[in-house]
């Protein structure tokens, strides 16, 4: 029998709690749910007003992976949704997770959480800028850190404050809180910034996605600022062999990174980091910290 758990007055069926989802460590679905419950306050602060896309991996990262934007079949009536106009379906809706009960329901589906750079109710109006630094082997996150430090200073020259997190995969994400602007404007600024980084650091950075250009360099992916694109949310688990997390990191950690393992964080690492440092990305949720694009 599937156990029923009460969360904030909501009945949630939690299934297959002993199922191993991460074969590298034996991390189970029950541990996934425990992780999300433990980091809920920090995670919810970053996703609560944003339409979610889910990368589902119900049989672990070695099983089937599928990306969905529509509310999954069987979504409870108490889970919030928001209209998200799309060119192919003007009546489309997506889930908005704003409380612990909705978070645990979604986590039971075994998902990565992905968000756009805009909030529900204001489609295509960006209040964040994101740069996804993706290393082309043999480059690693070490090279991403070098590119990130240059980008931090360049953003600061425009009066913008950047914050960093690991992608939970191979790279690094930079995020900036913005005064709301059309996504198209944020995209254009991000692309120009990536081009400028390539011009300044031609042996380190590329701004185009072509694989032939990327070996040994850091691809500064600016495309995730487009209104239709999404980025892995802070604190989300990733569908990797180990239960890696897209984890906020300090600039001191970025500056000190000398080995790729320096910036690999697993689920069990995050609660102690939160207890010690708090949410390093908290300024992104404070409207008073938002900067204006030049």
TrEMBL record:
EC number: 6.5.1.1
Taxonomy, superkingdom: Bacteria
Listed Pfam families: LigD_Prim-Pol
Keywords: Ligase
Coiled coil: none
Matches recorded under InterPro entries: LigD_pol_dom, NHEJ_LigD
UniProt GO molecular function: DNA ligase (ATP) activity
DNA ligase D polymerase domain residues: 28-280
Protein name: Non-homologous end-joining DNA ligase
Native organism: Streptomyces katrae
